[in-house]
Amino acid sequence: MATCSARHPQLFIFIFSFCFLSLACGRVVTPNFKVRAVNLGGWLVTEGWIKPSLFDGIPNKDFLDGTGLQFKSVTVGKYLCAETGGGTIIVANRTSPSGWETFKLWRINETSFQFRVFNKQFIGLDSTAGNGITVVAVATTPGGSETFQIVRKPDDSSRVRIKAPNGLFLQVKTEEIVTADFKGDGGWRDDDPSVFVMTISGRMQGEFQVTNGYGPVKALQVMREHWSTFIVEKDFKFISSNGLNAVRIPVGWWIASDPTPPKPYVGGSLQALDNAFLWAQKYGLNVIIDLHAAPGSQNGFEHSASRDGSQEWGLTDDNIQQTVAVIDFLTARYAKNPSLYAVELINEPLSPGVSLENLIKYYKGGYDAVRRHSSTAFVVMSNRLGPADPRELFSLASGLSGSVIDVHYYNLFSDVFDNMTVQQNIEFIDTNRSAQLSFVTTSNGPLTFVGEWVAEWQVGGATKQDYQNFGRAQLQVYGQATFGWAYWTLRNVNNHWSLDWMIKNGYIRL
Ligand SMILES: *[C@@H]1O[C@H](CO)[C@@H](O)[C@H](O)[C@H]1NC(C)=O
Ligand SMILES: *[C@@H]1O[C@H](CO)[C@@H](O)[C@H](O)[C@H]1NC(C)=O
Ligand SMILES: *[C@@H]1O[C@H](CO)[C@@H](O)[C@H](O)[C@H]1NC(C)=O
Ligand SMILES: *[C@@H]1O[C@H](CO)[C@@H](O)[C@H](O)[C@H]1NC(C)=O
């Protein structure tokens, strides 16, 4: 800061106080302490694997948004397929199922569904050709003529028939002709061309699935119950009395239109976030707000509230501006609360779907939105997942004071870790993670934050001592990050992913 302007004393004093107050001058702001945080994952943005019971009461819960279904015709013994991935007819001539043979559900209610194909069109009946019974995948926006029912065989739920909007069933006339004109009796015989053996190839359990699964009335009850019980005041007390000084709180974009967010989301998460700020202040904790789910989904995962695995965030200026408005809203609301420590503009945008160009456009807008309301909040920018240069945000972030780069380090999600022993995992932390973190931690660049890590791995049968050593190694290395670190997550049915459990059972000591 002292290098700002030495030649003009008055200007210096002016700029000095300006810098002091606003962080707007010196590029490098050294915080007074390092963040030792825990994520409050699965609270305001649903992740089914963190709390599966949240989904228990959904009727017909096999069929949620984003569920991938494959259908093998019992008569021809081959799979339904959107020829060329979509845009033309549906055929039944594929021997093994993959992308073109997988149909992603959009749930209308517990009995009605739409099917999205690989190229993102929806299955429907061809209204242009003669009798309107040919099954095609051409509609880009689904409506009534793209809405089907799935009828399961009562004593064998893998056998299904698909009822079209004209009231008739789909049938496989030949491998190359699939129509919606079967009036049969539903005897489920092997010579019935309307019977398919269904395989579920993938499921999603995010905020879209849980809220749309319950429907508006029930979702409101279930989510409010979840928000008021999953994380409570005494958790903040526990966090602050166990060597932590901050929480990173994932939120979804719909929080900005509380209490009446767009369907299927339900209102009330803003009240929960307000409570978090009250408790943070009471127990002296810092809050990092983390926009974990951006409109359209920045990575296609359930944790960014994707409906069907699609990643559509950032493709238009409107979408980027809508997201900037969410950041503006959140910062404005909490800027005066002394616990607001940082705002993370977006979590884990995925390369190459999110281009660097669009991401930078957004980060500039998001940074300015934070600075409109707060001169002191740090602004966290998540590195892209997938193929990306870990320093690709440096040229942007280095020019923006109070900026932080977020990197997530898991010894998971890659076959690199498949056969590693306990010792190899620990060496990977000491050598490879340490080198990766040093590479992004530079004296004149942005601050660095290991915003997600966990003492879990792919080692089978590891002992408590092994876990302790693994956790300790990570704390040692991630302690070098200049902004700090955050464990994923506070509470989780999977014990090692629950810092609450890890601390209470002596696996991690801070
Ligand atoms: C489900 O949606 C379909 C199509 O919109 C509608 O006809 C039907 O009445 C709905 N069923 C229920 C149980 O709401
Ligand atoms: C399936 O049928 C379509 C439409 O006739 C044809 O173009 C395609 O080559 C067939 N594919 C296979 C694997 O038989
Ligand atoms: C891990 O070991 C299994 C069994 O020996 C082997 O099949 C697999 O290829 C290995 N994976 C990697 C990534 O080395
Ligand atoms: C880890 O780093 C070491 C030393 O630089 C290197 O030889 C090794 O290939 C790296 N391991 C992985 C899995 O990237």
Automatic annotation (TrEMBL):
Keyword Zinc: no
Glycoside hydrolase family domain: residues covered: 219-492
InterPro entries tied to this protein: Actin-crosslinking (IPR008999), DUF7910 (IPR057232), Fascin (IPR010431), GH (IPR017853), Glyco_hydro_5 (IPR001547)
Gene Ontology MF: a single term: hydrolase activity, acting on glycosyl bonds
Key words, A-Z: Glycosidase, Hydrolase, Signal
Ranges of residues in domain DUF7910: 60-200
Signal peptide: 1-26
Keyword Iron-sulfur: no
Superkingdom per UniProt: Eukaryota
PANTHER family for this protein: CELLULASE CONTAINING PROTEIN, EXPRESSED, FASCIN
Protein family: Belongs to the glycosyl hydrolase 5 (cellulase A) family.
Name used for this protein in its record: Mannan endo-1,4-beta-mannosidase
Organism of this sequence: Ilex paraguariensis
